[in-house]
Amino acid sequence: MKAILKNLGIKGTEEGGGTGSAIRCHGRLLDVVSPINGKRIGRVRLADRKDFESVVQCAVDAFQSWKMMPAPKRGDITRQIGIALREKKEDLGALVSLEVGKIRAEGEGEIQEAIDMADFAVGQSRMLYGLSMHSERPIHRMYEQWHPLGPVGVITAFNFPAAVWSWNALIALVCGDTVIWKPSSKAPLTAIALMKIAQGVLQKNGLPEGILGWVVGDRHEVGEAFINDPRIPLISATGSVAMGRHISQAVSRRLGKTLLELGGNNAVIVTAKADMDLAVRAIVFGAVGTAGQRCTTTRRVIVHEDIYDELTQALMKAYRQIPIGDPLKPATLMGPLIDRKAVQNMQSALSRIKKQGGRILCGGEVLSGKRFSAGTYVTPCLCEAPPDAPIVSEETFAPILYLIRYKTLQEAIRYHNAVPQGLSSAIFTTDMREAELFLSQMGSDCGIANVNVGTSGAEIGGAFGGEKNTGGGRESGSDAWKIYMRRQTCTINWGIELPLAQGIRFEPV
Ligand code: NAD
């Protein structure tokens, strides 16, 4: 652990705010504890209100010069950030594992995602396209252009302590915005390590402080100031539905923009014509990967009655073979939950499911003994559930998978869409008609819909996000860049007359 922290320049106590380089903060000391063994990894001196003010003002000032740099040159900076991240990929991946308990492959995968985003952003920097339109007036030209928006606030959840920042920040950077990051206080060290690397690149290029800032602080003091600050025109917030609802109301009150990436409750439909082997592998990765702590985690499997028993048996067999333990060990496939509170939430969900007519088929135990002394390890749980059990509509951020039986595909789609969240979805079938029905407007109501691909593990090239209570935001690929810019529609009259639109005449007769 010491070597990882040393390689990333993380000291025993780090400052919880920076404008590029760290600033001296004045809040309380926060212990950062690893869910792997409950031991302290480091400490962070939280930012207070005044520290927050310095970070925001610096981002406001830096915006004036950053927005003037040509976009492809800004792209070159993100290219260099990508190279710097590549050099530290292993250490950063290991820090993600230490801080949030992901297995090593997933920790490194998350850093790879940030590297991919840097590459993507380089290309995007030359593709901030606007449309041109034909004017209805003669000798007029109309087009739209996109300008930088301002300092963008990025709030991230604990479970993707690196990738979500990169989805937002690297695109916002090429769009000409400065970025202020408020990472989860459960994972501030990964954020600080990333900021140190990015700042090295900015400094090498002689760029001013404030282009990439960060602030770790108490929710009531710093969090509220952050979301209510009119100098931050866009707040991109990733986290629970409750958090999103609160932030959306606060930002809307000041007529700011939000990009919300909130909780999911993702389902896989497995039809009688599914390739069973493919379905089982995808469901196990989707439900057990990251210990069930992904927004895209598979939480419900809706199975045709003819193959229900076969699929259930196959899943139970796979669940019993999952190696659980230290996520830094190569053989481990499932690490701990983020903290004991998450374990309690899982236990309380399991007792509710029993009261609501469900039945636990396997797993759901809290592991004890020396290897599991942090109290954060559980076995992944498979349950049978009535489709209308209230708990099935909730996102319990833990590895619980509900199995639901169906007779017709229309019934399956009805169960599928009956939850308030709308992030990721999948169907496993080899029947083209079933697949197309699922993808049609009569099918899945989610932001992501897959065929023979599980619900988790999206690629960066697509726009990522979900509908309904998931918040409606889109990040990462496709045209997600547009939210980080302001659109301007321009009309130019290059003639000597002044015709009005809609044929209106406004002159004395
Ligand atoms: P959380 O809602 O507890 O916290 C998320 C972030 O919001 C943290 O940084 C937290 O400090 C901040 N926050 C909370 N209240 C705030 C306030 N009033 N003002 C400012 N900031 C505030 O979520 P979590 O436990 O860290 O993460 C798990 C949740 O995130 C799950 O619901 C998961 O589905 C969701 N998530 C969604 C996506 C997505 O892309 N849709 C991705 C990852 C996680």
List the SSEs and their pairings.
Elements: H1 2-7, E1 13-15, E2 17-18, E3 29-33, E4 40-45, H2 49-66, H3 71-87, H4 89-100, H5 104-124, E5 132-133, E6 140-148, E7 152-155, H6 163-174, E8 179-182, H7 188-204, E9 212-215, H8 219-228, E10 234-238, H9 241-253, E11 257-261, E12 266-270, H10 276-288, E13 298-304, H11 308-320, H12 340-355, E14 359-362, E15 381-384, E16 400-406, H13 409-417, E17 421-422, E18 424-428, H14 432-439, E19 448-451, E20 463-464, E21 467-468, E22 475-476, E23 485-493
Parallel strand pairs: 1-4, 7-8, 7-10, 8-9, 10-11, 12-13, 12-18, 13-16, 15-16, 18-19
Antiparallel strand pairs: 2-9, 3-4, 5-6, 6-23, 14-15, 17-21, 20-22
Helix pairs in contact: 3-5, 3-7, 4-5, 4-7, 5-6, 10-11
Bound molecules: nicotinamide-adenine-dinucleotide.
What is the SS-derived class? alpha/beta
Q: How would you characterize the largest beta sheet?
A: 7 strands, mixed
Tell me, rounded to a whole number, the average pLDDT: 97
CATH level-two architecture of the largest domain: 3-Layer(aba) Sandwich
Shape: globular
Annotated CATH homologous superfamily of the largest domain: Aldehyde Dehydrogenase, Chain A, domain 1
What integer value in Å does the Rg equal? 24 Å
Q: Provide the helix percentage.
A: 25-40%
CATH C-level of the largest domain? Alpha Beta
**Ligands (ions, cofactors included):** nicotinamide-adenine-dinucleotide
Number of helices: 14
Give the strand content: 15-25%
Unreliable runs, pLDDT <50, ≥5 residues? none
| Terminal CA distance | 84 Å
The overall number of domains is: 2
CATH topology of the largest domain: Aldehyde Dehydrogenase, Chain A, domain 1
Spatial sequence of strands, sheet with the most strands: 14-15-16-13-12-18-19
